Amino acid sequence: MNSLDPTPTLAESSPDCRIHALTGAATGLSRELSAPLSAEISAALAASPGGEIAVRSVDVNIPLLEKNDILAERNRGYFLGRGLAALNLVSSPGAGKTTLLERTLDEFGRRTRCAVLVGDLETDNDGQRLSRPHAPVAQITTGTVCHLDAGMIARAAQSIDLDGVRVLFIENVGNLVCPASFDLGEQRRVVLLSTTEGEDKPLKYPPIFKSAHLVLLTKVDVADLLGFKRELAVENIRRVAPQAKIIQLSSRTGEGLPEWYAYLDALVARR
Amino acid sequence: MHEVGIMQSALDAIRQQAVKHGATRVSRIVLRIGTLAGVDLDALRFAYEALAPGGPADGAVLEIESVPARARCASCHAEFGAGRGFIFQCPHCGDYSGDIRAGRELGIARLEFP
Ligand SMILES: Nc1nc2c(ncn2[C@@H]2O[C@H](COP(=O)(O)OP(=O)(O)O)[C@@H](O)[C@H]2O)c(=O)[nH]1
Ligand SMILES: [Mg+2]
Ligand SMILES: [Zn+2]
Fold it and tell me: A178 and B1: CB-CB below 8 Å?
């Protein structure tokens, strides 16, 4: 017992009893005892002739998602050890992740070996779309889980032949909320925003944009047709995520793709 | 929503802590959650109500400390809070900042054992 540490909490009401936190100083709000706890203490006091009981308050500081974080670090080490760059692609459903990866495999993937892990709630449609003789692809079907986690990535990565692979693309489940909290062990997080969505998406989903290394503004070929204001979208991304690089591209016309491939080349060169 | 998974790992950790501290139950749980952690607090409380019964946290008080987001200005090094919509704009320079210093917390801060 540390006699300097926290103030006795029930001492005032009953002078001959003491309640004393053994470890971990309580502060502010937390000094107040919860109703069930007070009731329990009163009962214990009534039952104990000496009138002394101890409530232990322990500062534990345990990060949550702990298991995922450990697995993510393991993945990161595994990827680094193999000399491959892993990118986690996140967006709303339909923003163009699969289409971009298809074209990337056909162009960039011809000179630099790539692999893809693709997550969806149901079906292996995207995995089928991405299948190429020159690129290993694994489909992860999550069922009801609305994001990929590091454990799924570890298993999926082991299911494909990563020999010679320099870039591993991970297409996350279409969702702008949950994937923000799940580190997969990637080196780069890439968030896609398409011109078919509102220019204010970054303002509505700040956590995922804040975690992005790169934001891809996709489907710019139809921006004018849709009255999508590219400059406003870019300004919103800059405001929410000043740390992120921004590339505007179209998987249909190929606009902006050289810049995307240059980004990938630079990542590979760092390995 | 991933709040169920988060609460599940919280309860697993709490069970381990109870064993470690020789307690059979916990009476108060204090979580510390940043406003940028992407966690819906109502959904988290709901998950708690659903998952806690039958374990050491059954009947415990769940307290959630919300940690406001803060960022640091690259130009003048001032630390400041987020404006509307989590936009960090330095009140002195007007620069936008991505250097987040607080708000991503997601963890168990403290436990009380009876
Ligand atoms: N106009 C246009 N449409 C695109 C582009 N990229 C994808 N799409 C279309 O957007 C829809 C969803 O694309 P998909 O790649 O499946 O999105 P995902 O859900 O993010 O994987 C499909 O109908 C694509 O043909 C693009 O650059 N321009
Ligand atoms: Mg897809
Ligand atoms: Zn400043």
Answer: yes
